[in-house]
């Protein structure tokens, strides 16, 4: 039995509240169980220096956790004067994932920065950030298209992500913190429809077999379909 009482392939209760903030071109609050992430997308009419003149746009991301997002207070990284390696790794993942789902030629020479701020953490924050980040990005692009600034839609099928792993010998989907902290195998599946964008997978307590990997992938694809439906509903 999972600590939450969920079935192995069952994801946590999911909600996405679009337009959560007033000023950002796109925003949402995504809740995956007790993990809550505020995602905003900001549009700038320029691109980084190294791609100026290429006709290509740029999508990037920043990620952070509020001091009391977890059960004990964490020090603000701004106070420490630098980002942790974990923060840098996660925000690079979010940026890569969202760029993979964007036609940068259709976006044109503008940059969209997606900020993902974890209000409350209970496992799976990077996956929730990717799913919510796409919703914020979609809403920002919708605004550009409505204003006539974008003649062609640079986004297609939603980009989403789900954690799956092996907990006490059983493949399970959408790990919460009690499972994630004790998982034998931990993985993050970044998806666009039925296709994989990125897979992060590691053995924490034991090795895993090809059959177990296939089972986890099947769970990720099934859960990804539910996430995609929720993303589309949020932006419709």
Automatic annotation (TrEMBL):
It comes from the Bacteria. Residues 10-140, 158-222 form the Exoribonuclease phosphorolytic domain. Phosphate binds at residues 86, 124-126. It is an enzyme of class 2 (transferase). Keywords: Nucleotidyltransferase, RNA-binding, rRNA processing, Transferase, tRNA processing, tRNA-binding. One of its GO terms (biological process) is tRNA processing. Its EC number is 2.7.7.56. GO terms for molecular function: 3'-5'-RNA exonuclease activity; tRNA binding; tRNA nucleotidyltransferase activity. NCBIfam families: RNasePH. Belongs to the RNase PH family. Homohexameric ring arranged as a trimer of dimers. This is Ribonuclease PH. It comes from Hasllibacter halocynthiae. The gene is rph.
């Amino acid at each position: 039995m999972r600590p939450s009482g969920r079935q192995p392939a069952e994801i946590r209760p999911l909600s996405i509240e679009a337009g959560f903030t007033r000023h950002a071109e796109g925003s949402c609050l995504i809740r995956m169980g007790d993990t809550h992430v505020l995602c905003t997308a900001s549009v700038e009419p320029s691109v980084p220096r190294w791609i100026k003149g290429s006709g290509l746009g740029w999508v990037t991301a920043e990620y952070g956790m509020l001091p009391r997002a977890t059960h004990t207070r964490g020090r603000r990284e701004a106070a420490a004067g630098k980002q942790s390696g974990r923060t840098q790794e996660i925000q690079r993942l979010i940026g890569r994932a969202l760029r993979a789902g964007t036609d940068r030629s259709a976006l044109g020479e503008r940059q969209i920065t997606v900020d993902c701020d974890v209000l409350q953490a209970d496992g799976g924050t990077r996956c929730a950030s990717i799913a919510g980040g796409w919703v914020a990005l979609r809403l920002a692009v919708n605004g550009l298209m409505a204003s006539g600034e974008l003649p062609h839609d640079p986004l297609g099928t939603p980009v989403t992500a789900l954690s799956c792993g092996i907990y006490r010998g059983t493949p399970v989907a959408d790990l919460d913190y009690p499972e994630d902290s004790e998982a034998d195998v931990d993985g993050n599946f970044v998806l666009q429809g039925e296709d994989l964008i990125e897979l992060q997978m590691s053995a924490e307590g034991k090795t895993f077999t090809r059959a177990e990997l296939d089972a986890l992938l099947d769970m990720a694809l099934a859960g990804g379909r539910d996430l995609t439906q929720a993303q589309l509903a949020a932006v419709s």
